[in-house]
């Protein structure tokens, strides 16, 4: 009986020792992943080192994961010891040979082209370490982060671009006092952009807000301009007064508010563009009253050899592109022909050199069928010349014949006297 009890105690002791050994193995078995170079760029190659730090292993297994849209696995090699590497998704080191502590193998990756700046992860999951066919240790996930195209040094092309530093109103608009319901008119306003190298230029492709019907609480109009990703703004003071009762009644019909269109105007007039400096200028139609619905607008230029028109995505807006020095008249007309607005555009060369325009009317129509016509009708009530010296000669001969006929009849009448 005592002998049996001793055998049971020995077996229990062996079980406890075995459990302690397994627990100790769980605490000492480790796998690490490192990246000697953690910042890379498109087209560049880099290495990932995977090491295990346990003695007496007979096998190692893990799942390798990475973003295939960013990286390509190009090479797998052993640095120390012996490790059999399987496919690119599974790392398999099952062998009868022992794998010593510090054994390392290397994976070489390349970064794909045109990858946006990002931080991407390379990780090992489902890590299994084997000491024999029955003893296995499972570890959790390990990973390393790789920064892609996150270079802190400035791009060479960016260095060549001088950044915008300031925006100024160098000439106030012609109109700063408004009635409630009117819209801001930038006519006459000049906006100057200054750059970090102290150079400057006038800009016209700015935006402003509010660009809808003004209210009495509107005290400032914000002018904004953006170039090469840098945006600047400046404000213009305005004064908006409330509409009197009489004025309000004038704007109402049938005891109710009306949105009936009474006319159209431009947001700016008498435009001046500089050839070689001004790429284009936007012209916008305003309705009268401001809350009226804008119908389809047909645009024309009197001389597309001086200023041509480019259609925008917005009805009631057009881009004027300078072509040559001279003058042209821009016309906006409602499709039904009931209302229209015109403004003159002057295109100067650098240094305000003026050009000459032709008397030929070459009309380009936007938002409608294009019409190219030559105007040979009267100008200022003067008929075009239709004859020359031959005409005057025929008149002279006819006059002489008439005088001769009259003289002959006189001679016959008084011959017998």
Mind sketching the topology for me?
Layout: H1 2-28, E1 31-34, E2 39-40, E3 45-52, E4 59-65, E5 71-78, E6 90-92, E7 104-111, E8 118-130, E9 136-139, E10 142-148, H2 156-160, E11 164-171, E12 177-179, E13 190-195, E14 200-203, E15 207-209, E16 220-227, E17 230-237, E18 239-241, H3 245-250, E19 252-253, E20 256-257, E21 263-266, E22 271-274, E23 281-288, E24 297-301, E25 307-311, E26 317-322, E27 326-334, E28 340-348, E29 364-366, H4 389-413
Parallel strand pairs: 2-10, 12-18, 22-28
Antiparallel strand pairs: 1-3, 3-7, 4-6, 4-8, 5-7, 8-9, 8-10, 11-13, 13-14, 15-16, 16-17, 19-20, 21-23, 23-26, 24-27, 24-29, 25-26, 27-28
What tags apply to this protein structure?
417 residues; Immunoglobulin-like; 5-stranded mixed β-sheet; 4 helices
Tell me what you see in this structure.
There is one protein chain. The chain is an alpha+beta fold and 417 residues long. The protein folds into 3 domains: 31-148, Immunoglobulin-like (Sandwich); 163-258, Immunoglobulin-like (Sandwich), CATH 2.60.40.3630; 259-377, Immunoglobulin-like (Sandwich), CATH 2.60.40. Helices cover 15% and strands 39% of the residues. The chain has 4 helices and 29 strands. The chain has helices at 2-28, 156-160, 245-250, 389-413; strands spanning 31-34, 39-40, 45-52, 59-65, 71-78, 90-92, 104-111, 118-130, 136-139, 142-148, 164-171, 177-179, 190-195, 200-203, 207-209, 220-227, 230-237, 239-241, 252-253, 256-257, 263-266, 271-274, 281-288, 297-301, 307-311, 317-322, 326-334, 340-348, 364-366. The strands form 8 sheets. Strands 2, 4, 6, 8, 9 and 10 form a 6-stranded mixed beta sheet that branches. A 5-stranded mixed beta sheet has the order 22-28-27-24-29, with no helix packed on it. Strand 13 and strand 14 (200-203) form a beta hairpin. Mean pLDDT is 75; it is low at 16-27, 93-101 and 353-386.
